[in-house]
Amino acid sequence: MKRALPMILVLLTGCDELDPFLPKIFFDTLQVEEIDFQQAKIDFVFQVDNPNPVEVGLSSFSYDLGLEGIHLLAGDNEDGFTLEAADASELRLPVDLGWKDTWDTVQATRGLDTVGFGLKGHFGFDTPLGEARLPYDEGGDFPALRTPKFRFKNLRATGLDIFTQTASLELDLGIDNEHASNLFFDRFDYGLTVDGQPLASGLVNTFEVQGAEEGDLCLPIQVNLLTAGAAIVSAITNGGALDIGLGANMDVETPFKDLSGNPVIVPLSIDEAGALNVQL
Questions:
Q1: CB 41 within 8 A of CB 94
Q2: Helix/strand/coil (H, E, C) string of the chain?
Q3: Rounded to an integer, what distance in angstroms lies between the CA atom of residue 204 and that of residue 190?
Q4: Do the beta carbons of residue 105 and residue 66 sit within 8 Å?
Q5: In whole angstroms, how large is the CA radius of gyration of the chain?
Q6: Are 27 and 46 in contact (CB under 8 A)?
Q7: 101-139 pLDDT tens trace
Q8: Which domains does the chain have, with CATH numbers?
Q9: Contact 82/57 with Cβ under 8 angstroms?
Q10: Whole-prediction pTM
C-alpha cells in the first residue's frame, strides 16, 4: 500500500513550502534498445529523486515527443509508479518509431547521424493535498538511421573469349550513405538476373562507404554465350540494353552503439531492378 507524505504536508498550502517535499526529476539518458532499418525502440531514462522518508506514488505521466521541432507522438500513462523512500528511482519511457513514417514527416539532414529531439510533459505525484504535477521539458540528440540507397550506374563488357564462348562484364553499383559517419558492409551476398533469368552470384566480404557520399561497388559477371539467350548475346556484342535484377543480403555496421558500447550491426536486404546499356 502506498504511504502518504509526512503529515506536515497537510498544513502546507503554498507551492514554495511544498517544494522541499516534492520529488525532483532529472533526465538521465536516451538508450537505444533495438534499431534496424525499419524501426527504432528507444528508452528515455529519467531519475526521480524522492526526498521523503516514505514511498511516494506517481499517479500520472504524460509525454509529447517531437523531432526537429515537429510533433510525432504523445500519450499518457495512468498506471502509476511508486518511488522508493529517500532514494532515487529510475523511470523509463519506451518509444517505438517506424522510420518510414518518421522520415516522411521529419527531414533528416544529410551529413548528420542524429536529429534533435524535444520531450515534454508532466509527472503527477500523490500528496495529501491532491495530485502535484511537475512539468519537464528536455531535449537532445536522437539517432537518425536511414537505409542506404543502391542504384545501377554502369554495365561494361570487359572481355570476350571466342574459344570458351564466354563474356566478362562488370556492373557498377552506386551506394548512397546519408549519415555523417562511414557505413561498413559485411558479407554482401548477391544474385544477378538478366531478363529475369539467373546470371551470376557472389559474395563480397567487406566494403565501406564514406559519410555523406555515394560509394561504388563493382560486381563481376561471367556469361556463357552458348547458354545465354540471343537478346543477351546481341546486347553484349553490340552494346544493347539489358534488364538487370539484383537481390542481396548483407550486414551493415551503423554509427550507433548498443547498451554495451559496441557498434549496432543491422541486417539489410535489397531487391533492385533497372535497364542498362552494355558499354563496349
A1: yes
A2: CCCCCCHHHHHCCCHHHHHHHCCEEEEEEEEEEEECCCEEEEEEEEEEEECCCCCEEEEEEEEEEEECCEEEEEEEECCCEEECCCEEEEEEEEEEEEHHHHHHHCCCCCCCCEEEEEEEEEEEEEECCEEEEEEEEEEEEEECCCCCEEEEEEEEEEEEECCCCEEEEEEEEEEEECCCCCEEEEEEEEEEEECCEEEEEEEEEEEEECCCEEEEEEEEEEEECCCCCHHHHHHHHHCCEEEEEEEEEEEEEEEEECCCCCEEEEEEEEEEEEEEEEEC
A3: 8
A4: no
A5: 29
A6: yes
A7: 999 999 888 999 999 999 999 888 776 667 778 899 999
A8: 7-143 (2.60.40.10), 149-279 (2.60.40.1820)
A9: yes
A10: 0.83
Do residues 51 and 86 make contact, with C-beta atoms less than 8 angstroms apart? Answer: yes
**pLDDT tens digits for 188-205?**
999 999 888 888 999 999
104: left (phi over 0), alpha (psi -120 to 50) or beta: alpha
C-alpha triplet 141, 143, 147: angle, nearest 5°? 150
Take residue 182 and report the three cell numbers written for it.
562511414
The CB-based long-range contact list for 23-26 (8 Å cut-off, 24+ gap) reads 23/48, 23/49, 23/50, 23/51, 23/52, 23/56, 23/83, 23/123, 23/125, 23/134, 24/48, 24/49, 24/51, 25/49, 25/123, 25/134, 25/136
From residue 90, alpha-carbon distances to 28, 95, 118, 124, 234 in Å are: 9, 16, 20, 15, 69
What gap in Å lies between CA 86 and CA 182, rounded to an integer?
46
